[in-house]
Every structure is written in structure tokens, then in C-alpha cells.
Amino acid sequence: MQNLAAADFFLSLCLPLRIANYATHNSTIMRHVYCNFGATAFYLNMYASILFMEYIAANRYLKIVRPLETHTLQTVRAAHYISMATWVTLLASSSAYLTVSLLTTWGADLIPGTIGCDSLHSTQLLLLYKIIHSFSAAIFLFVLFSLIFFYWGTILRLRQAQLNQQKHPSCGSGRNLSRSKRNMLVLVTVFCVCFVPYHLVRLPYTFLRPFLHRCYWHQALYYMKELTVLLSVLNACLDPLIYFIFCKTFRAQLGMQRRHSITMAQPDSTGPPPGARRISQGNLTTLPCTQTRTSFSMSRRASVI
Q: Which segments constitute the G-protein coupled receptors family 1 profile domain (predicted)?
């Protein structure tokens, strides 16, 4: 979960550079900086988000199918190794692309009328570009089918639990499985909304672009690609929903902050306390409940902190 949050954070840092590139599309230096550094970091963190969503779903699925035991992949050490291997692999491929890009395209003149980074691709970089995107598409398909498999497996386990509950009414595991099904559905929905449209457009754009040569379909594919990239960035906004439903610590912290804000927002009592009563002379006599209320308020604030 922390790695997914880190990927979303670094992805958000790439957005100002992307905006600056399109705002100053005639700047050669800005185009080279974005295409070599900004775009590379952007796609690195995008696929980091995809992979870490896969790991979260796999961990949840193992908890469902093996609720009474801990798989080797669910240990803290295994999680550290998997996360490290993921970042190293993504950084290695991005570094290779960045190195070839700097050696073959840095300082090249912009082609008039072009906006994206495609016009800067050399022959060597274009070949590496296709290889990396083919590998990325394979990762996407693997993650997509894995998420569907995990969700379907959760449904089957829920049906089995419901049948067992009909035979043994004292069994109460169906409610937890129903919650797990809902959580898995949220994860699959966020993944499909953010990343499926992008990959449906990205592969045709990557392999058909050299044959279109600025025709109508070239421009159409380009704008569709940019629109789906914008949709993929929505993932950084929807991932907090995943944090909330999958992470108990995150929910506990939000609940603690909410209780603390409610406690701090309560106005101080300047008038007579609720325990005051009116006597025949018209004066107010305060009951000893003031001290009790104060001690209760202090204990409540202490529990919140």
C-alpha cells in the first residue's frame, strides 16, 4: 500500500512538467526535457501503480482462500523483496530508454506542427519504444486477467460460504466474504476505468503511427491517446478509495482525525451548565455535575489523542 501511494505521489509530480510541455509547445528545450525525463518518469510510475494494485489483489485473494494460514508471499520479507524487484525492474527499463533517448535525440530540432514526443524518436529509440510498450502491454494483460481471476474466485468462495451457512446457520463467514467481494470489485473497477481505455488505444497508436503519416487517423489516434492518458491519471485520485477499504490503519487514522476535529469544534460553555436548576428566588444554583462533565471531556480528549 505504501508503494502504491509512493507511485501515485511521483506520478503527480510529473504532471506539472507535462502541462508545461503542452503550454510551451514551441520550446525545444522544454520538449526535450519532458520527452526524456518527464514522460519516462510518468510511465514508470503508471506501471508501478498497475503492478502494486496486482499485489494488493493477490494478497487479498490469498487471505480469502487461505484464511487460517499465511502464505510465503504474504510475509513482510517477501513483500519487501517483491517491491524492491518491481522498482529495480522498472527503473532499469526506464534508464535504458532514457540513455538511448539522450544519446540519439538530445538537441534534435523540432518538426513544425508536431506536439508530442514521437517526432523526436530516432530509429534505435523507436525500436526500443516498441519493445518496451509491448512488454508493458503484456504486464497489463497479465494484471487484468489476474484481477478478473481473483474476483471470480472471491465470488465462488462467497457462494460456497452461503451454501454452508444455509446448512449450518451458526457459520458467519459469509458477511466477511461479501465485504471482500465488494472490495475486490472496487479494485477491479478502478483498474478497468483508468487503464483499460489507455491500453486499447496505446498499442494501435504505437504500431500504426509510422504508417499513417499525419493523416486524419494519425491525429485521431493521437488525441484519443492523450485523452486516455488523462483518464489513467485519474487513478491517483481514486487510489485513496483503495487505501480506505483495504487498509485498517488508514481508516483508523481518518476516524481519529474526525473525532479529534469534532471534539475541537465543540464550543466552550460560557453560560450556565446543563445541570443548573432554577429555585424560587429566580437564581441559578449549579449542581456538582460541572466537575463530572469536565473530567469526562478531558478523558474523551485523551482517548482521541
A: 1-243
